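It would be a great kindness if you could assist me with a short task in structural biology. Thank you for your consideration; the sequence and its tokens are set out here.
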Amino acid sequence: MFRPDPSRRLAVVLGTNEIASAVAVLLHRAGDAVVLAHDPNPPVIRRGMAFHDALYDDIAVVEEVCGRRADRFLDLAPVLAIPDTVAVTRLGLLDLIVHGRMDVLVDARLHKRAETPDLRHLAGITVGLGPGFAVGANCDVAVETRPVSPVRPVTQGRTEAADGVPSPLGGVGRERFVYSPVAGRWRSAVEIGKRVFVGYPVGRIDGVPVLAPMDGILRGAVRDGLEVPVGVKVIEVDPRGRAARWTGLDDRPRKIAEATLAAIDLKTRPLASARVLTYARDR
């Protein structure tokens, strides 16, 4: 297998978005060797809070943990041996599992309406985040991520279906996002963290302008040069002024990551159930 230190648990996180990255940070802090496997859909927009840009050799640091690109299977162990580092790869799950069984597999791709295959035979513990997971059918344990529901481990039954309602930010919901009006190549020279004003041209998709929906800080944007399908989020504006955040671990990803570790703890330690109940009550 591709672990540099056999004493460390090997965790693979599917996805390079901000929630997958928050899970990776907390797993790393717990002592695990962590690999993030990229999934292209949906495109990652909150890149300042994610390890996604490591895929392009950019600096990707989230709360003092560095994401480094590993193009080949043989690159994984050297990357994982670097202190305070997680590996970020385009290798798919099938490319990874042929080399041996992993200890933990977390599906953080957040495919809100896609059918989720059975992951249970691929790792010692499999955790599903968000809609589409049924404990005992396609995962060992799940985490509820729906914005209107408490973030918590799910040990029986299914996670709730997606309702398409984004969590509010500064009292603003869907209105802070812009969705791709057409499919095509996204081009933008505006960096995340810059102030924008309503109507400002943030980018274009095959020549079709994409305008800022409101005044605020550009919190998220698809990476320049990527192909996007129609109807996906391409930019997000944070309307909170000085309270705006676009880097580090945001509150919701952190809570989901904490619930993920609690769920793993529940499956691996005989006394974990009391800790998870305490976790849920505290939330």
